[in-house]
Amino acid sequence: MTNCPKCNAVADDSGAFCPSCGSSLTGAAAPAPGRRRLGNLAVVQHEKHTKSARSSILIVAILLAAGGVLMWFLVKKDADEVARIIGDQDVASNPHFREAKRLVARAWLLVASNFVLAAGFVGLWIWAKRNAFGATLTAFIAFLTLVLVNAVVDPATIVQGVIVKILVIAALLKGLKSGLALRKLEQGDRTGAA
After folding, report:
1. Does the residue 46 lie in any domain?
2. Which of 75, 76, 139, 192 is deepest in the core (most CB within 10 A)?
3. 192 domain-assigned
4. Cβ atoms within 10 Å of 133's Cβ, excluding its own
5. pLDDT grade, residue 156 (50/70/90)?
6. What is the largest CA-CA distance in the chain?
7. Are 140 and 128 a contacting pair, CB within 8 Å?
């Protein structure tokens, strides 16, 4: 164990930089500005806020993917039922069968949309590692847009899954709060490094 020449904090002999103030213990160049110069507490806070923001986005991605899988099974069951009923009958002459097939096709589109949205949220989750606030804000806006578009297309969806919607919004708001705290921490780190 050695003492830091700048702040006199106890530091590990194998470390190149002081864990408290970030100054060089070996004469090496100091870490780049904005790169965790605030010490161990700041590093822990940085990682905690990043993890929280990313987790909130991942929750939405998992829920969208799980919803897609559930819808896939339901639509597959309905499509099989329509195929069984239609059988050898003349579909062109029966408007009920054409409507049933159209509804099944719409349901498949909804399943595909869920998987595309889940993939988009996974992309936001990856981006959140570099920009937690920006990615979480984008995820929040995308989720609210999704809810609003669904409400316009089918007003009954406003109350469908309202508990899940509230939980997702709460998770994304928590992620936004963490992303904002992380942004302030990083800005303070850059200011302190200057």
Report:
1. no
2. 139
3. no
4. 21
5. confident
6. 89
7. no
